Amino acid sequence: QVQLVESGGGLVQPGGSLRLSCVASRSITDIYAMAWYRQAPGKQRELVARILNGITSGRSTTYRDSIKGRFTISTDNDKNTMYLQMNSLKLEDTAVYYCNAVHGGHVSWGQGTQVTVSS
Asked: What pLDDT does 56 receive?
């Protein structure tokens, strides 16, 4: 099982940017899926963006509709790190953001990092 540690959250004004990082305890090169989820107060946790490394289908990324064109998920395999670049942040992006990894039948979660968008 892989341990995940997020960082990069904070307070930002609407229209601002943040970059979240998720450092894994092992190589992420062969991890089947890595993703960012978020959970706002009183709401269910939701998928924000995901990278899949399919054996036959190759690498693919997916984004939820509300963040398309504003957020970008990426990885740096040399640093065992996944990123979420968030631009043009909106009030409704306020949430705790969690890193997630699925590999070998195991699901791993980070502890979460708070993102607050407020004027």
From this structure: 67
Q: In whole angstroms, give the CA distance from residue 88 to residue 100.
A: 23
**Which pLDDT tens digit goes with each residue over 70-105?**
999 999 999 999 999 999 999 999 999 999 999 888
Which residue matches tokens 């590999």? 103
Do β-strands 95-103 and 33-39 pair in parallel, antiparallel, or remain unpaired?
Answer: antiparallel
Pairing of strands 10-12, 113-117: parallel
Of the candidates 16, 22, 2, the one whose C-alpha atom is nearest the C-alpha of residue 113 is 22
Angstrom distance (rounded) from CA 45 to CA 96? 9
Please, what's the largest Cα pairwise distance for the chain?
46
